Amino acid sequence: MNNIDNTFPQPPKERFFYLETYGCQMNVADSELIIGLLSQSGYRKTDDIDQADVIIFNTCSVRKHAEDRVLGRISNEKQRKLNKPDLKIGIVGCMAQRIGKRLIEDNSGIDFALGVDNYSQLPSFLAALDEPASFTDMNESEIYENIEPEHQGSTCGFVTIMRGCDNFCSYCIVPHVRGRERSRPFEHISHDVESAGNRGLKDITLLGQNVNSYHFQEIDFPILIERLAKINSIERLRFITSHPKDLSDELIRVMADSPKICKHIHLPLQSGSTAILRKMNRKYDIDHYLTLIHKLKAAMPEIAVTTDLIAGFPSETEADFEETLSVMRDVQFDYAFCFKYSERESTAAAEYTLQVPQAERLSRLQRMIDLQREITLKKFQAQIGKEVVVYIENLSRKSSQQVSGKTDDFKIAVLDGSEKDFGKLVKARVISATSGTLICQRQA
Ligand code: SAH
Ligand code: SF4
Ligand code: F3S
């Protein structure tokens, strides 16, 4: 915030850190905090791993695959110590919280592990790099009010509005590694959004594991977002993630009434079977979910809905799975992130008997992905002929004469342009579509 604490320990000589980020947007935002913090503490960020004195992995534990990737990276990078004995490798984030201590004890190649919400200690850790490997646990009340994040993008930004999660969905590791839910004060969030906008980040996404339960004094989420949407320095406001059990009519009203709030909602369904939702401890049934979809579309006919789905949760039968496919056909999600269930130690679902065999999980996942691909293609093709407003973010990957960006409803769009268009809102007409991109023509 405004009065940054500049008393963090400074390194004895110029030191470079290299940071690699895994997991969700929360980790991306935390990496921006870490970069801000280390830069204020005299360290320099490098994108060249060969130059690094410290390599930091900001890790994710949500599925086994996420952890395996980082373990593979550590095992590759630790070879560098043969030629550079002073090099230090550390992990932060959710996996550091979950198994950091174990990894240090097992001599897996890391020199430090800093649990979630203890990043303020990172400069002291790095200042004492010659000490033996160490682990620091989570600080459950941390909300990082004295650290200014260093946004890495130049057009879009994340602003964390709350940390932790109290929902304990039975499959999920997040509440175990990120601690209890806490909301940041309104003034701090509003300061962050405004200053991000002033730095040219016009498309802001508010982050929380369940933004609908944001609460600070008398301010709940609809009040928060309605106030933030009045900030002049930004053009677009988005938020993730909404838990269906807490999505209120008032939020739908505020979304419909505020032109700056994007007409897109990410509303994780997880399963189309009420019996499975109960075992997942999601606290809603399919009727409730479909009623929400109906209300959202009634208030904002153009709204895009995206979701998360899990295939092969314990005890999921073929009939349960078919119910998920059937809800996917009914709702016609614009996009769905589909995951194969992964047991996470210490979560309730890992103890359930009747785990679905891996091969079956995989084949259900594939069926889900195939169905969603068809639906997404249809949804994208339905945009052909429409006028959209694209916020230009990058050069297109395919051609340097083209730029890409997002529509208000979170679809990637490509059109002719150049770097001069970055950060501009451009009117365009959709002329064709694939299942991931709208091809557009600029309008006068
Ligand atoms: N807080 C958000 C998302 C958290 S994790 C929410 O409530 O929606 C992102 C997604 O990962 C979840 O929505 C879920 O679909 C998936 N996920 C979480 N734990 C999982 C597990 N053990 N196996 C497979 N997918 C999982
Ligand atoms: Fe995990 Fe559920 Fe919390 Fe989302 S709401 S982070 S899925 S426990
Ligand atoms: Fe996010 Fe992965 Fe942690 S999804 S909250 S980085 S476990």
Strand order of the largest sheet: 2-1-3-4-5-6
Give the CATH H-level superfamily of the largest domain. tm_1862 like domain
What overall geometry do the principal axes of the alpha carbons give?
globular
Integer-rounded radius of gyration: 22 Å
Percent helix among the residues? 25-40%
**Number of separate strands:** 21
CATH topology of the largest domain: pyruvate-formate lyase- activating enzyme
> In the CATH hierarchy, what is the architecture of the largest domain at level 2?
Alpha-Beta Horseshoe
Tally the helices.
Answer: 12
User: Number of folding domains?
Assistant: 3
- Name the structural class: alpha/beta
CATH class of the largest domain: Alpha Beta
Through-space gap between termini: 41 Å
Q: Could you explain the architecture of this structure?
A:
The protein is α/β, with parallel strands linked by helices and 444 residues long. It has helices at residues 25-40, 64-77, 94-105, 122-127, 174-178, 186-198, 221-228, 249-257, 274-279, 286-299, 318-331, 358-381; strands at 15-21, 43-45, 54-59, 88-93, 112-114, 134-136, 156-160, 162-163, 182-183, 203-207, 215-216, 219-220, 236-240, 264-266, 304-311, 335-340, 387-395, 402-407, 412-416, 425-433, 437-442. It has a 6-stranded parallel beta sheet, with helices on both faces. It has a 5-stranded mixed beta barrel with strand order 17-18-19-21-20. Mean pLDDT is 93; it is low at 1-6. Bound molecules: S-adenosyl-L-homocysteine, iron/sulfur cluster and FE3-S4 cluster.
